[in-house]
């Protein structure tokens, strides 16, 4: 009898060790899939990113590793809102938020991330006040979890700055962007891509308060990092140089603006940069209008308008495009009237 008990005891240990080894292997595989998903997301290859996040999520779920599963749901949301696929983004964000609140409560990183994703979605819809509310919820959680000098806190400050900029509160945008800059310069190396984003955004805010020298210096820092880190077709590379062209344009340096946009004209042929394309088209529309090439300007503005309509973007953005189109059509009609008037005088 004692022998049988010993055999069963040893078998139990063997089975337990086998399950433990399998679970460890599955966890490693899930993390590998997640890391691949993040790499593809960084490259804006959304379909590949989603494939690996979904694979990772299924493994975490089978292991009842709910934190890993919710982490994947949040990343799936990001992969959709970054490509303006908002219904899918909302679905995954809602799932992540409800699961995180149920399993971990409010004070958890994945709960904060879900609020961050909701803020991004509301921003794309154009509800900047609601976006700011979600960002403040995210920040309040992160401040309780992390030290003040932490990359996540810097990201929160950067997003809050963007929300204030969208609300035309440039001084508040500048305040939070400078907070972000102080943290990122202390935690990252000088060529980190997040620093490029910080410098690029700050250049926009300084431009808006007419401090062009500061704006140009910060923009050049952003461009230098972008050149060292990204392939020329990467959305972040293109976005940095669009900001540069916009800065030159607003400073009245139209030739430099045109040169910068010409250097990324290939962006028109890329499919994974809807947001960047929209801004590119708007800027090209403005430049062509000031060069008195209104037919070309109208074409660019209509291209930007199509992206907004196709991707359920905000009324404010659509209104902005329509105002430019109205301005151009009014100018064209005025010219026709003046020309007609002149002809009448000549006949008289």
Walkthrough of the structure:
With 348 residues, this protein is an all-alpha fold. The protein folds into 3 domains: 49-145, Tetratricopeptide repeat domain (Serine Threonine Protein Phosphatase 5, Tetratricopeptide repeat, Alpha Horseshoe), CATH 1.25.40.10; 170-260, Serine Threonine Protein Phosphatase 5, Tetratricopeptide repeat (Alpha Horseshoe), CATH 1.25.40.10; 273-334, no CATH class. It contains 15 helices and no strands. Helix 2 (46-62) runs antiparallel to helix 3 (66-81). The longest helix is centred in the first third of the chain and has 41 residues, at 2-42. The N and C termini lie far apart (126 Å). Mean pLDDT is 87; it is low at 336-348.
Question: Could you list some keywords that capture this structure?
Answer:
348 residues, mainly alpha, Serine Threonine Protein Phosphatase 5, Tetratricopeptide repeat, 3 domains, 0% strand, globular, disordered C terminus
- Annotated CATH architecture of the largest domain: Alpha Horseshoe
Q: Report the mean per-residue pLDDT as an integer.
A: 87
The CATH superfamily of the largest domain bears the name Tetratricopeptide repeat domain
H-E order: HHHHHHHHHHHHHHH
Please work out how many helical segments DSSP would assign: 15
* Shape, per Cα inertia axes: globular
The total tally of domains equals 3
């Amino acid at each position: 009898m004692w022998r049988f008990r010993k055999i069963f005891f040893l078998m139990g240990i063997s089975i337990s060790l086998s399950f433990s080894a399998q679970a460890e292997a599955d966890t490693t595989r899930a993390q590998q899939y997640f890391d691949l998903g993040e790499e593809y997301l960084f490259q804006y290859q959304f379909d590949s990113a989603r494939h690996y996040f979904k694979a990772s999520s299924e493994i975490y779920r089978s292991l009842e590793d709910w934190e890993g599963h919710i982490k994947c749901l949040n990343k799936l949301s990001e992969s959709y809102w970054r490509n303006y696929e908002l219904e899918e983004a909302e679905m995954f964000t809602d799932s992540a938020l409800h699961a995180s609140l149920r399993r971990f409560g409010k004070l958890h990183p994945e709960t904060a991330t879900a609020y961050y994703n909701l803020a991004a979605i509301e921003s794309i819809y154009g509800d900047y006040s609601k976006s700011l509310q979600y960002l403040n919820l995210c920040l309040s959680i992160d401040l309780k979890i992390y030290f003040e000098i932490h990359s996540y806190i810097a990201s929160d400050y950067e997003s809050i700055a963007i929300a204030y900029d969208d609300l035309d509160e440039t001084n508040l945008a500048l305040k939070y962007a400078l907070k972000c800059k102080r943290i990122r310069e202390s935690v990252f190396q000088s060529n980190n891509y997040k620093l490029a984003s910080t410098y690029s955004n700050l250049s926009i805010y300084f431009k808006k308060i007419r401090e062009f020298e500061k704006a140009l210096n910060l923009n050049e820092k952003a461009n230098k990092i972008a050149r060292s880190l990204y392939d020329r077709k990467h959305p972040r590379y293109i976005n940095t140089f669009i900001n540069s062209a916009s800065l030159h344009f607003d400073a009245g340096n139209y030739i430099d603006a045109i040169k910068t946009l010409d250097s990324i004209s290939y962006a028109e042929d890329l499919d994974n940069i809807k947001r960047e394309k929209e801004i590119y088209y708007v800027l090209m529309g403005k430049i062509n209008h000031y060069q008195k090439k209104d037919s070309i300007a109208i074409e660019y503005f209509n291209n930007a308008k199509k992206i907004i309509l196709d991707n359920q973007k905000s009324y404010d953005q659509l209104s902005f495009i329509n105002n430019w189109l109205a301005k151009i059509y009014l100018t064209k009609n005025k010219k026709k009237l003046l020309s007609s008037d002149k002809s009448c005088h000549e006949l008289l």
